[in-house]
Design brief:
Largest sheet: 7 strands, antiparallel
CATH superfamily: Fimbrial-type adhesion domain
CATH architecture: Sandwich
CATH class: Mainly Beta
Structural class: mainly beta
Order of helices and strands: HEEEEEEEEEEEEEE
Shape: globular
CATH topology: Immunoglobulin-like
Number of domains: 1
Distance between the termini: 38 Å
Helix content: under 10%
Number of helices: 1
Strand content: 35-45%
Amino acid sequence: MNKFAIALNTALLIAATPTAFAASSTELAISGLITPSACSPMLSSAGVVDYGKISAKDLNASRPTALPDVTLQLTIDCEAATLFALEPLDNRSTSGFPGSSYGIGFVNGTKKLGTYYLEMKNPLADEVPAHTIASGDNGVTWYKEKFMDPGYLHAISSPVDNSTPIPLKNLKMDLLINTSILRTDNMDLSDEVPIDGSATLDVIYL
């Protein structure tokens, strides 16, 4: 480390003019906040949606084919009233499209197979009906939103103010999964193709 510092200082001195010198130091700040309470999320059915085997003949060649909607129950239990948000991450984002949808893998190597959406419904904040809100600027501003878009923050607000998340101890809501297979007229479905969607829901403390 000493050799590196000497070489760096020498380079700065050489680059400097006789009348102006660069600052010889800078500062690094490490910050954060340790929260006394923790929140644990849980999805029913272990978070697994299994469509089983689908015949290629039942898929539309000229338009997307909607698969049956599936609803899972999402619960989040905190040790005390806590201000938090959920950040969904699409683990198959390369097979998805920009926007609200998530990818479900590829067919024939590089062709996208389809998409799914996550819709938040019937939220109960500490057993009281509430609203779902979202933020696309890391929590600076919030707006009412029912779809859980990947990469956005999603929180709970009171019904009278959709601009501010509220702290809560328990959250219960339905998570509707809406999946579709893209048009198949240019897909080779002569072999079995796995439906391979995966997402992670991270609890973010605000």
